[in-house]
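Before relying on records like the one below, remember that each one covers exactly one chain. Contacts with other chains, cofactors or solvent are not represented anywhere in the record.
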Amino acid sequence: MAEYLYGYTVSSPGALVGGFWGFVAGFVAGWFFAFCHNLVIAATLFITRTRAELAATRDFLDHI
């Protein structure tokens, strides 16, 4: 583990260092996953709304 987590040793202080690095790695991975998830949801919402608006205004000249 010391090769991946800077400052980690097999000891009580090393457990705190490992816990800290685990928190940091989990936070970064979770943030990235949430960002990608929200990006996909936003793109899907944008495409759906755009298609609905285009379908609603496709024949607006027929009503003039």
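The mean pLDDT is 90.
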